[in-house]
Amino acid sequence: MLVFTFSYSQTTEEEYNYLSFDYPEVEENELTPKKGYHLNEVDNYMYGSIISYKFYEFIYDETGDVKAYLIRIEKFKKNKANKKRFLCIPIGSEELTRKMISKRKLLGASMQLGLDIYYSVFISNLIYKFQKT
Fold first, then answer.
1. Do the Cβ atoms of 96 and 75 come closer than 8 Å?
2. Closest CA to 84 of 96, 97, 71, 102
3. Which of 4, 98, 128, 132 is the most exposed place for a label (fewest CB within 10 A)?
4. 111 to each of 14, 98, 117, how far by Cα in Å?
């Protein structure tokens, strides 16, 4: 898939908190997403047959800027509800990146391992696409 937007601006704390804490509830309860923004799926990855990773750009409609990336992680369970986690990858903020790293540590071993494997590929593809523009 890998269709990236190449206009970026720094993630605000409000945007980070929305993607990290509010968006999971929006998706779970089929609520209206944050006004003035939309998500654009740019990539996905399956770790074996049990964990799905979907990568989204979080785009501010007024400027078209990518404000952050959202990774939606879903672990498929046979006899229980699937486990879902959401991870915001902020742009241009060391403080928010530290928060993301702390949250990432709470994913659990298998979700974290799959993310470690694919995160490097995702970043490499992002850089490659950026150089081509």
1. no
2. 71
3. 132
4. 26, 19, 10
pLDDT at 6: 54
What count of residues does the chain have?
Answer: 133
What does the pLDDT average to over 42-54?
88
More confident residue, 48 or 5: 48
Please determine, for residue 125, whether its predicted confidence score (pLDDT) is greater than 80: no
Residue 38 near residue 59, CB atoms below 8 Å: yes
DSSP secondary structure of 11-57: PPHHHHHIIIIIHHHHHHTTPPPPTTEEEEEEEEEEETTTEEEEEEE
Which tokens is 68 given? 């952050």
